[in-house]
Amino acid sequence: MIKLNEAPASGLHGELMVPGDKSISHRALMFGAIAQGKTVVERFLASADVYHTMGVLQNLGVQIEEQGDQLIIEGRGLQHFHAPTTALDMGNSGTSTRLLMGLLAKQPFDMPFFGDESLSKRPLKRVSQPLQAMGAHFELTDGDYLPGVIQANNQLRGIRYEMPVASAQVKSALIFAGMQAEGTTTIVSPLASRDHTERMLQKFGGRIDFDGDTIRIEKQPLLQGQHVVVPADISSAAFFIVAALITPNSNITLKGVGINPTRDGILRLLKRMGANIEMVNRHDDEESVADLIIKYQPLHGIEITAADIPATVDELPILALAASQAQGTTTISGAQELRVKETDRIDAVVRVLSQLGVSISERPDGMVIEGGKSLVAHNQKVALSSSGDHRIAMMIAVAALITKGSVSLIDEEAMAISYPTFMADLAQLMPNEEIK
Ligand SMILES: O=C(O)C1=C[C@@H](OP(=O)(O)O)[C@@H](O)[C@H](O)C1
Ligand SMILES: C=C(OP(=O)(O)O)C(=O)O
């Protein structure tokens, strides 16, 4: 347990480059493993989730070396994995699990796989069902959950699949399988979701047609190893963006943040709430990056609907905190996917913000937040739990910057899933304050 604050913070200042993007780090490892030759991944995210993808690939015989903030991967093509020596450990990571189910859908040996308690409650049928239609075989607990087995299989065929949910994990699993399948795989999504897999496949020399919500892919020739520079993770940056917007006197610069248009929903929504976020030093490569300058600014409530969700899905907990400080009401709907993340994030956000005195109510597919009231620790003192969810843990740490009374976080270790150095980076932006 850590004590987060004594008194409200007096402002965030200075520059920070948050760690590398988690989604892109996972994908760089996977493409590096199946390409021919060496792949170097610069500024990869050294966090628990990414180490699980790395551990699984090493268990399958891929050589991966860590040198400072770089990973060096010796790729050997898709046909050269070895049967694993132990069951594949996916830890807490939905991205590792679902993407690897597609990547490993055509191997000549069985691969048992498992995850932690939270991951074992997250649905996998959304991936196994279309992959089975392509010819893959899985054994899953109750047909939907870990632990399970990715079974030996020697053929995949392309299908046309209309995804019921706009999930980048499902889409990416089908792209990885489509790369190895006979014929064309067509994937149609109800809304566009993050397209890092598509962009990285092209960088590694593959061919894919993608146009918003429809993707077409054929069997791919051998990919070639690449040098990948991972942008700073906008999902991690979001905690500092909101921290600066709600803490009076703040003025910060976040360097080199990934601003891929399928990920930058948080910026668009905060601008709709009245935020002034300046973007400078923009560079466009296969992924676009820019520096973001954020200053404290009063916000107002908005309506967030289904079309807004995919580009900001992981940022909704911290956005709910911003909404609690905005004038007026914010309504979030069409966000039922939050219920099947590391925790039920609708339930977790409503629980935590209610404990801090926010008028917030739960809906089946979102929440309604009445903004404009100060956060107050009940009886001057409150100990909050993230229920083991990294994004909820970081939201609590940001809330504590403006809470009257003392806030403790029971399970701060959850932050290591995506951002092990979060508390140290927050302290760096508050040189005059004491943060544990
Ligand atoms: O593809 C990815 O890297 C991710 C996709 C999203 O999940 P869904 O595909 O379930 O929406 C997101 O919540 C997750 O943190 C990372
Ligand atoms: C949902 C998340 O990740 P994953 O699905 O990979 O566990 C997240 O990082 O917020």
Automatic annotation (TrEMBL):
Main location: cytoplasm
Keywords, ordered alphabetically: Amino-acid biosynthesis, Aromatic amino acid biosynthesis, Cytoplasm, Transferase
InterPro entries recorded: Enolpyruvate_Tfrase_dom, Enolpyruvate_Tfrase_sf, EPSP_synthase, EPSP_synthase_CS, RNA3'P_cycl/enolpyr_Trfase_a/b
Reaction catalysed by this enzyme: 3-phosphoshikimate + phosphoenolpyruvate = 5-O-(1-carboxyvinyl)-3-phosphoshikimate + phosphate
Top-rank taxon: Bacteria
Gene3D superfamilies the UniProt entry points to: Enolpyruvate transferase domain (3.65.10.10)
Chain residues that bind phosphoenolpyruvate: K22, G94, R122, Q169, R345, R391
Single GO MF annotation: 3-phosphoshikimate 1-carboxyvinyltransferase activity
Name by which UniProt lists this protein: 3-phosphoshikimate 1-carboxyvinyltransferase
Organism: Convivina praedatoris
Entries under SUPFAM superfamilies matching the protein: EPT/RTPC-like (SSF55205)
Active site: D314 (proton acceptor)
Pathway linked to the protein: Metabolic intermediate biosynthesis; chorismate biosynthesis; chorismate from D-erythrose 4-phosphate and phosphoenolpyruvate: step 6/7
PANTHER family assigned: AROM/DEHYDROQUINATE SYNTHASE, PENTAFUNCTIONAL AROM POLYPEPTIDE
Enzyme class: transferase
EC number: 2.5.1.19
Domain Enolpyruvate transferase: residue ranges: 10-425
Function of the protein: Catalyzes the transfer of the enolpyruvyl moiety of phosphoenolpyruvate (PEP) to the 5-hydroxyl of shikimate-3-phosphate (S3P) to produce enolpyruvyl shikimate-3-phosphate and inorganic phosphate.
Quaternary context: Monomer.
Similarity remark: Belongs to the EPSP synthase family.
Subcellular location field: Cytoplasm
NCBIfam families assigned: aroA (TIGR01356)
Binding-site positions, 3-phosphoshikimate: K22, S23, R27, S167, Q169, D314, K341
CDD domains noted in UniProt: EPSP_synthase
